[in-house]
Amino acid sequence: QVQLVESGGGLVQAGGSLRLSCAVSGGTFSIYAMGWFRQAPGKERELVAAVSWSGRTTYYADSVKGRFTISGDNAKNTVYLQMNSLKPEDTAVYSCAADQRGRIYYSFSEYGYRGQGTQVTVSS
């Protein structure tokens, strides 16, 4: 059974940085496309960043381009989201998702495996 567990969330001041981790167990990490989503109170969940299984294709939402970076470590079966220059509007629950079909999907429900999420709060 594939499980995804996020960590690294917390409270940070505006302008600060956080690195989220998503550990994948029970599957073949190297073939998965991975995505990071976020959902703020009262808003729809949105795709923030994603990477295809080969790493050759990445996606970033316009709101985070130049500030967030998605990366993976096959040896650790972990995908990361490095978040710099954080803003109060980045406050949300961040969830990771994986799919063995290997391509990027823009809807959380499209991914075969999904994590529970970690809270990120950015104070002004």
Please tell me about this protein's structure:
This protein is mostly beta strands. Helices cover 0% and strands 49% of the residues. The chain is built from no helices and eleven strands. It has strands spanning 3-7, 10-13, 18-25, 33-39, 46-51, 58-60, 68-73, 78-83, 92-99, 113-114, 118-123. Strands 2, 4, 5, 6, 9, 10 and 11 form a seven-stranded mixed beta sheet that branches. A four-stranded antiparallel beta sheet has the order 1-3-8-7, with no helix packed on it. Strand 4 (33-39) and strand 5 form a beta hairpin. The radius of gyration is 13 Å and the shape is globular. The mean pLDDT is 96.
- Estimate the global geometry from the Cα principal axes: globular
What is the count of β-strands? 11
Radius of gyration: 13 Å
The share of residues in extended strands comes to: over 45%
Distance N terminus to C terminus? 40 Å
Q: Would you list the SSEs in sequence order as H and E?
A: EEEEEEEEEEE
Task: List the total number of helices.
Answer: 0
Structural class: mainly beta
By oligomeric state, this entry counts as: single chain
| Biggest sheet architecture | 7 strands, mixed
